[in-house]
Write a structure and sequence with these properties.
Order of helices and strands: HHHHHHHHHHHHHHHHH
Radius of gyration: 22 Å
Largest sheet: none
Shape: globular
Structural class: mainly alpha
Distance between the termini: 33 Å
Helix content: over 70%
Strand content: under 5%
Number of helices: 17
């Protein structure tokens, strides 16, 4: 009888491992969106969410207790606030309905993947190795696309690598997130080379937010001793010497040899002279929409303007800032939506998870200043699910240690 039970548990474990790795390969790589957008696969990303949702049903009977109350509270609170503001304040419009659907789908997606990742630290370990492989693949894709601009997109991004993500900013953010979860898997001697490889991949996206996020994450890794400070200084000194030695002549030759589009050239000009206000057009447009969102917020600072308020204006883009995005919708309450989720998935983490959670929290809160899609993009949402499951596992392990020591 016990042998039969153990066999069932082993089968469930392997099944859950397959689901966890499959979810990473499907959603964290954004291959599901890429295949649909490029016309290779006719099923939209929603098909894969439903698929993994149905596939995770057997885990309900054993893993539901591992979903923390704080995460469940945030999920229900987010949906409740969204529904309330939709009913009371939003103008009945298709945009508001679509925004509400996105929010509900995001919550469902988070809970499904927490269920898939829950319960077993071995599953987390295997999942993180899958992330390690995917980020190396993403770096390879970025390098390949830099030399072949139409490799992943027939229109090309003219030097701004994006790979399967199709958006260079998303690509850069995914690389930083992958680095956060996988760097400590490696022996200390291999960590700096790995971080440097990720840095190259991020740099090829020309994403200001991702590059800044990479730098902040490296600083946190150094403070928490995941990276060795002295070795890091040697690496920085070596790389700096190479760059100075080649100088501007090296950079000019690169620009001449590769067909970079106007956007990429403007980004390079911005990096060369950050103080120049008119060196990069998108920076000005982001500032303009941020000012408009702030004006919306100040008109109704306590209750906001209803969900989707920044999607109905005449601008072609939204806020590029999730705090302003939700503040325009929900007033001052909107500023706390993302930080509360970050707190819910990382609070009371122990051991290695504590340091991963610290780097994750810092990057996500920073990335919120550059993107209003943080709670929509699946490559980010799945990382929320993973860190939530890892935090719950670390808490259980800590209680077990305390129980044994008392």
């Amino acid at each position: 009888m016990n042998l039969s039970i153990n066999k069932k548990h082993n089968l469930l474990f392997y099944y859950q491992c397959a689901l966890a790795v499959g979810a990473i390969l499907t959603f964290f790589t954004e291959i599901s969106s890429y295949l649909y957008t490029s016309g290779i696969f006719s099923r939209p990303p929603l098909f894969w969410i439903v698929f993994f949702g149905l596939a995770s049903i057997p885990l309900l009977f054993s893993n539901i207790k591992y979903i923390s109350r704080s995460v469940i509270t945030w999920c229900f609170g987010f949906i409740f606030v969204s529904l309330l503001w939709f009913v009371l304040l939003s103008i009945p419009a298709e945009i508001a309905v679509e925004e509400l659907k996105k929010r509900i789908l995001s919550v469902i997606f988070i809970l499904i993947n927490i269920l898939i990742f829950s319960c077993n630290k071995n599953i987390h370990y295997l999942t993180r190795w899958a992330i390690f492989i995917t980020v190396l693949m993403a770096v390879f894709n970025n390098i390949y696309e830099f030399f072949n601009p139409i490799a992943f997109n027939s229109l090309g991004t003219g030097g701004r690598s994006a790979g399967f993500y199709l958006n260079p900013n998303s690509d850069g953010a995914a690389l930083v997130l992958g680095m956060i979860f996988s760097v400590s898997l490696l022996q200390p001697i291999y960590r700096l080379p790995f971080v440097s490889i990720i840095g190259i991949g991020v740099l090829l996206t020309f994403s200001r937010g991702a590059i800044l996020g990479w730098l902040v994450t490296v600083i946190i890794f150094t403070i928490t001793s995941i990276l060795n400070l002295h070795k890091l200084l040697y690496w920085v000194l070596g790389i700096g010497t190479v760059i100075i030695s080649f100088g501007s002549q090296w950079s000019e030759e690169i620009l001449q040899n590769f067909s970079l589009n106007q956007n990429s050239l403007e980004r390079i000009a911005w990096f060369q002279n950050i103080s120049t206000s008119d060196s990069e057009d998108s920076a000005d447009s982001r500032l303009e929409v941020a000012q408009l969102a702030w004006e919306l917020f100040t008109k109704h600072p306590f209750f906001g303007n209803g969900i989707g308020s920044t999607l109905t204006w005449n601008m072609e883009i939204s806020t590029h800032n999730i705090y302003l995005y939700y503040m325009a919708d929900h007033g001052i309450l909107g500023a706390f939506i993302l930080p509360l989720l970050v707190y819910a998935v990382t609070q009371h983490a122990h051991g290695e998870t504590k340091y991963i959670g610290l780097a994750f929290a810092a990057f996500i809160l920073l990335w919120g200043l550059f993107s209003h899609n943080v709670l929509e993009e699946r490559y980010i949402l799945i990382m929320f699910s993973l860190i939530a499951a890892m935090t719950a596992a670390s808490q259980l392990e800590q209680r077990f240690k305390v129980g044994n020591s008392s």
